[in-house]
Amino acid sequence: MTDETLGYFAQKAAFNARQGYRIDYKYLAMAYGIEIAVVATSLASAWFFAKLYGHGDGTTMAMMMLAPIAYAGIEIARVPLALAMRTQPNWFWKLVFAVMVLCAVAVSVKSLSQLGEVMFRPRLIDVTHATTELKDAQSAQATYAAKIKGADAVVAQRTSELTDAEARLKAVNSELGALPADKCARVWHTNRNGQRYSTQECHADARQGVMAANLVDAQKARGDASEKLDAARAARDTLDAGPTDKQVGALELARRDAVQNSQLHSFTGMFFGKDPTEVTEAELHSFLRLFVFFPAIFAALAATALALASVTPLRQEPEPVDLDTAAAATFLLDPMADAIKRDVLAATLEELARQKAADVAAEVKPVEPKVGPMRPTVVPPSAVA
User: Fold this and answer.
1) Rounded to an integer, what distance in angstroms lies between the CA atom of residue 284 and that of residue 293?
2) Nearest CA to 218 among 171, 184, 274?
3) Range of the domain at 188
4) How far apart are CA 33 and CA 26, in angstroms?
5) What is the pTM of this model?
6) Among the three residues 280, 313, 346, which one is the final residue of a domain in this structure?
7) 82, burial (CB in 10 Å: exposed 0-12, middle 13-18, buried 19+)
8) Of 56, 157, 213, 220, which residue has the fewest beta carbons closer than 10 angstroms?
């Protein structure tokens, strides 16, 4: 850092100290770093989103990028707003800045929620595609199964028709066989020459012709039924459910793999205590709200908390005052000396007055000597010597 930069920060530190607080620029730098990361990732996400759904139309992509750019500016403003709320001495403006911070946090929550949703989107798309393909294959399988079922029904019907035709043919043969034999008799005739001769003439039962016609019809019906049954069986033999069943099995495996690779499905399964493949769409979106929305709120508040924590109030201590010792001594000691002088003078005057009063009283009334018993005088040895 240059001397000018150091001078700038020193000036700022001195100004902040006069205002009654100190700013930890490490915390403040971390807060701005978080905000820059959020803004950069939000703009990148918005760009990929616009590129994916703008279909290469530059105008559409530009229109889709307008709101994210505006949101980025609001998100950057959140840290200065939090700092202003923390350092503002006026409570009205503290409240105003607090409301603005909450509004900016709401914008950040929106951007971070979109980031969280975009994080899971590729896996969800894979699961969606696998599910769609599986449903299409299952629908084709159901259609094919219905077709096979219809072919089986036709075969059963043709079989029943053949059985009925054979039964009819058998019945006609039985009825025809039960008819009485032809009645034959010898009949005599006379020719032109007058000669007699005889012939064998047989007369069949009148029902025989009808029975023969019924037999022909029964045989024809049986042949037709047999041909139809063969055609139905041939059509049924062309229908094989194996490929469709195999395709459905492969797509079910592909969908299971897609679900297993989806973190959101795995987390939702753990949350609800289910297999990830058994998670419903409602459960998935319910957990998505918890797993994306609340972390977005916490992440949006992180930079704000760091900005608030960067400000530390200072204890208001009295500033040191340079005192003139001589002037302080004169200011403090002179009154004390004067007071002592006044007290001593007053005491002296009082003592003099009391002494004077005592002298006056002594002049007015002489003091008589008191006579007491005589005591022997002791002369010390030193005096005798």
Assistant:
1) 14
2) 171
3) 155-238
4) 10
5) 0.52
6) 313
7) buried
8) 56
